[in-house]
Give the backbone structure.
Amino acid sequence: MLKSPYAGGHLEVIVGPMFSGKSEELIRRVNRSIIARQRAVVFKPAIDTRYDLTRVASHSGQSAEAVAVAHTDQARAYLSGEAGLFGPPAAWPEVVAFDEAQFFDDGLVPLALELADRGVRVILAGLDLDFRGEPFGMMPELLSRAESVEKLTAICVICGAPATRTQRLIGGAPAQYDDPVVLVGAQEAYEARCRVHHEVRRG
Ligand code: ADP
């Protein structure tokens, strides 16, 4: 059988609430590909300054080199060599990963599909649900289009059951459904919770 030069390209999506190990899993997959002598590039949204601008880091301390981009166009430019890197698409790396995928713009879906169509293994990790427990941005589309989906759970901080939701707390109380995503000056915290203990205040 003839092997296509674009064989092997596909989308792998890793989802779950905060603290479920999405970044850990992304870093594990990327580091294994590097051991296999493949070229891998990890992108993360530039707004996430959680630990380090040039690395992705998990809550438990693992990390991998990453490129922080403010827009998917910057990721495309980086891959296409406009930033002096890989040159034409034929020279794209074998593995391209996106952490915190839910925070990227709408250009992520077409870019991920184009990469996969060109033979790249694309790994996307992100929150499937927002703090209200509703589908997050373009994540449902990525989940539908992926060849492989891993849905991780954290541990509910209230009861110890598998946690599928991210609890948002403002000043120690559950956030309101209508609270804006960015609240300037508010004391905010996030916890992993199960369906029973996830609370969203309404009205
Ligand atoms: P994510 O990317 O999904 O937010 P990370 O990979 O950054 O998750 O972190 C996962 C790590 O977070 C776990 O290995 C564990 O050490 C730590 N952790 C902290 N709180 C919890 C929790 N409630 N449930 C599970 N893991 C937790």
Notes: Residues 22-35 form the longest helix (14 residues). The pocket of adenosine-5'-diphosphate is lined by residues 16, 18-24, 58-60, 154-155, 157, 192 (CB under 6 Å). The longest strand covers residues 10-15. The domain at 10-152 is CATH 3.40.50.300 (Rossmann fold).
